Amino acid sequence: MINNSLNLNDLAIFALVVKKRSFTQAALEAGISKAWVSQKISQLEGKLDIKLLNRTTRSLSLTLGGEILFEHCQAMLKEVIHAENHLREYAKAPSGKLVITCPEISGLDLFPALLHQFKLLYPQIKIRLIITDQFVDLTQQGIDFAFRTGKLTDSGLVSRYIGAVPRCLVASPEYLSNNSPIKSPADLFNHQLLKHSSLPDWLLKKEEEAFKIHVKNPVIESNSLIFLHKMSCLHHGIAFLPYYLCSDALKHKTLVKVLPDWLNVDNEYYMVYHKEKSVLYIHQLFKDFILQSDLNKMISN
């Protein structure tokens, strides 16, 4: 600091005088009196103990000290304007916190890309993502949005359909080559099956036909679809998985479809939220973002 610090307004007046090359014009633009402008310049010179302007009745020019100060004033005032604009934009930007829950495969496979795009659009909105395959109470857990498969039972919530999640039977080529051929769903009872804990029955459909397999004695059971996917890639048996989870493995021939004509497309994916919260601004932003995103394509491909 110099002489009890310089006043930013005084520096702005000085810069305006230099730009207008006139005390009178500077006073008119700033909406203050010429005498006030002259007083502020004199006070500034007094604080700095240096003459800043050469003044005559007809002309006004900068001294060397004035040139140095004006150069720094311009840079400083630009920074102030930039900071002000930045703060105004910050004040306008949507802010707050969203608490979201989704199944394991959604949280690890789909939502990183989705939430990355959302954060690019709304960097001031904070996100807490709870990854679980368990149904959670949105009210008790303070959750704003839940992504679930299966239809809604709570009338106090709103459910928006995102799309169908096709499931298919998959196994590694090595497993299939070392075991008996599979020509119909009934043949699956003679094979090693990898079961998800929440899916004891596999409902398979082929056009108008349907076949249900009750997985009674699986060789491996888990509450993680990702784990079952990895175990099927390691030749441990046949898994019944969402297509989007195993699409890369199918593409690279790590896995192949078993009975490819027999699928399940009844697995519906929903976004669930509180009816009364849906009017909140950041909730509307997130809801619209999801509905306009490619999530429906991501889960169905």
Automatic annotation (TrEMBL):
Top-level taxonomic group: Bacteria
Gene3D superfamilies linked: 3.40.190.290, Winged helix-like DNA-binding domain superfamily/Winged helix DNA-binding domain
PROSITE patterns reported for this sequence: HTH_LYSR
Cross-referenced InterPro entries: LysR-type_TF_proteobact-type (IPR058163), LysR_HTH_N (IPR000847), LysR_subst-bd (IPR005119), WH-like_DNA-bd_sf (IPR036388), WH_DNA-bd_sf (IPR036390)
Record GO biological process: DNA-templated transcription
GO molecular function, one term: DNA-binding transcription factor activity
UniProt keywords, alphabetically: DNA-binding, Transcription, Transcription regulation
SUPFAM superfamilies noted in UniProt: Periplasmic binding protein-like II, Winged helix' DNA-binding domain
Pfam families, per the entry: HTH_1, LysR_substrate
Coiled coil: none
Domain HTH lysR-type: 6-63
CDD domains assigned: PBP2_CrgA_like
Similarity comment: Belongs to the LysR transcriptional regulatory family.
Name of the featured protein: Transcriptional regulator
Gene: lysR_6
